[in-house]
Amino acid sequence: MAIFKRIRDITAASVNDMLDKAEDPVKMINQFLRDMEAEIAEVETAVAKQIAMERRFEEQRDEAAALVKKREEQAMKALELNNDELARKALSDKKEQQDRLNTFSSEYDRAKALADELRARLDQMKDEYLKMKGRREMLVARADAAKVEKQINHAMGSFNTDSASRGFTRMEEKVRQMEAEAEASGELRKPKASIDDELEHLGDHSVEDELQALKAKLANKE
User: Fold this and answer.
1) Positive or negative, the Cα torsion across 167, 168, 169, 172?
2) pTM of the full structure
3) Where is coiled-coil annotated (predicted)?
């Protein structure tokens, strides 16, 4: 039946083909599941109608079977009452009901076979849907991981280590230059010695005098 034409597409190969062509695999997976849900709902409606038809034929078959049995009993009772004409009418109607019974039995068998087939296909679709739904989380996680890896690779590809190293070297040179300039500025800002300080320094001969005294003492020992 045409309503089941998509069942052939519910395979791993078709899913992979769809994902290969999709710009966003996650969106495509979600759309695929929504399509499956819609298809399952459509099939469920068709199965419900077929089951209703199966039951209707079953009721008509049982009604005809009951009438066949009833007419035969009525014919027997008419014969017991020596009423051949009434017995003939009962048997004539029995024959019509038997024809109806045969027709409804055949229709019921066909309807039941089709309903059973539809049920099996519906179960197949639901099983496939549950499998796809179970795989969704795994596929979404893999897609997210691939996106992160792609972003990292892109960032690493655009990251220029040599350029950064040269930039740091220039900054180090600049910092050393700033330090030298600060040191030189400090030297320039030192206060000059006053005249009193210089004179006091010139008059400080105590160490030199003591040194000369030690030398003289050493010379006398010799």
Assistant:
1) positive
2) 0.51
3) 33-135
Does the residue 218 lie in any domain? no
Residue 123 included in any domain: yes
Mean pLDDT by 10 residues, the chain (222 residues): 48 53 73 89 91 94 95 93 93 94 95 92 90 82 79 69 72 83 71 59 63 77 68
Cα–Cα distance for residue pair 67/90, rounded to 1 Å: 10
pLDDT value of residue 150: 79
CA distance 162 to 167: 9
Distances from the Cα of 85 to the Cαs of 47, 74, 77, in angstroms?
48, 12, 12
Domain count, the chain: 2
Q: 70: how many CB neighbours lie within 10 A of its CB?
A: 14
Do residues 7 and 30 share a domain?
Answer: yes
Same domain, 155 and 166: no
Q: Is residue 82 in some structural domain? A: yes
Residues 120 and 177 in one domain: no
Structure token digits, residue 38: 């819609």
Residue 161 is predicted with a pLDDT of 60
Structure tokens at 39: 């298809």
**Domain range holding 141?**
2-159
Is residue 117 a contact partner of residue 54, using CB atoms and an 8 Å limit? no
| Residue 43 maps to a domain | yes
In 3D space, the residue among 60, 159, 162, 52 whose CA is nearest the CA of residue 111 turns out to be 52
